[in-house]
Amino acid sequence: MLSKIVRTVTNEFMLFIVVFGLYIIAHGHLTPGGGFQGGAVIVSGVVMLLVAFNSQELKKTLRERTLSIMESTGALIFIALAFAGIGAAFFYNFLVGTPIFGRIPGPGPNPGDIWTGGVIPLMNLAVGLKVVAGLSAVVLAMALFSSGEEIEE
Amino acid sequence: MRKVVGLIVLLVVIVFLVSGMLRLIHPFGYPDASDMDDYIIQNAQEETGSNNVVTSVVFDYRGFDTLGEATILFTAVTGVLLLLRTEKRRKEGS
Q1: How many angstroms separate the first and last alpha carbons of chain B?
Q2: Residue B11's domain spans which residues?
């Protein structure tokens, strides 16, 4: 466990890192980024927590079972959205033109709005959930393994 | 003797590979086949409704590849958790 200054700064910064990661995930269809990138940003915050506090402290809040369920949920949502458009094709964007995320932006460069993209924002959210849970589980398992402890079920 | 032969073979292979690579270089921004690019650039916004054309390729046109990417991540996480988990087995009767 590092000094009190580092722990306090980590606690304050964690909120901003999570908000920035969620922004990147949610605006994946408008600005550069998406589920994988935003998820990696949030996991960098988890790694910062892991460095500032030790892995025993973090083990109490981040359960491996919860992370597994989160990751599987993200994968299932992703595949379910892919199969939902199976009437036309696998991964067909069936939400374009419908009231949900269905607005179509004008041609050419424009700022666009958040309510476009069809299934793409939903898939970004699912992939983001999956990346956050999966990489957090990997990092936590490696830290616990190197410290000689084991993950609690 | 063996080192000299190895060096000559290495030089021949390097010349072969570099000459093959030089033949593939074309001017930047002018790919050989651009039908797919032109179609996606022209139609991606109205077909997928997404302003970020790269994301619309990743999650819509090439969604199947992204599914493979997600599967790779899932497999990696499964392997790491399987290898690094040293969970104690519960003793029977306790």
Answers
A1: 71
A2: 2-84
